[in-house]
Amino acid sequence: MADEVATAPVIRARGLSKQFATTLAVDELDLDIPTGRITGFLGPNGSGKSTTIRMLCGLLLPTSGDVEVLGYRVPVDAAAIKPMIGYMTQKFSLYTDLTVAENLQFVARVYALVRSRERIGAVMERYWLGDLANQRVGTLSGGQRQRVALAAAVIHEPRLLLLDEPTSAVDPSSRRDFWESLFDLAAAGTTILVSTHYMDEAERCHRLAILDRGRKVADGTPNALANDLPCQVVDVLADDPESTRARLAADNRVLSVTQLGQRLRVLVRDDVANAAAALQQFLSDTGATTASTRPSLEDVFVAATELREQLRTP
Predict the structure, then answer these.
(1) Which residues contact 188 (CB under 8 A, 6 or more apart)?
(2) What are residue 65's phi and psi, to 5 degrees?
(3) Could you tell me the sign of the dihedral formed by the alpha carbons of 37, 43, 48, 51, in that order?
């Protein structure tokens, strides 16, 4: 019994759906989020990521489906799980006319922390906020605000951290530092669910769920998703990439062509024997060269979203 409890998912959802008037924002979503790992929600805008996170933390009532978070039913037991959850919204939600210290003091009072001064000092040190303690939050840069928001989200040491596109307004250096902080939290036992539309961030996650139009269209580790890609990937180096791209796009064996400078990344149907050789022969009069390559997470994303219907077609 103890082993079952230890390995039970932190979040378990079955048939989770949310309808807004005529819009089905989340459609029969099944989720199992493991303990102490970073799970990513990857999907285009409007895919249901934010709506799902809001339902998981009890801020939004599902239209249908069953959800358990940390062993509690949501939304029935939402009040019981709130002290165990940290939530960082997509839009900065702290008080911009208060200082960093005042914001953290306010959040500490909300959670009725017993050793609030100790916890405030700990998160200010961990997220490099000491020099900013008396600065109004409204005057901070995007990266600095992000650190304050994360400090506020974890000040009560939550078991589960829900992050809704937390790095959408910060520079690459701040994003990298932020993710290092997330790995430290996960290593200490915090379970993290983070939504993103950045491929490099998605690759950092231990596990991914790809959403499209409210449905989960792929789920697994980044490596497993790449290995299971239902098509072949070919790199094409061309002297005239624009005309070569147009020519490839007209071939019914080709599912997608993306230009990367002089190179073209081509997704080819899985039933084409030796796709790289087939395209080399097809482009023999152009001087282009082809080579098979390992799928990237972007290839996985394109196949799971944009090409989903095409890949179902024999």
Answers:
(1) none
(2) 110, 170
(3) positive
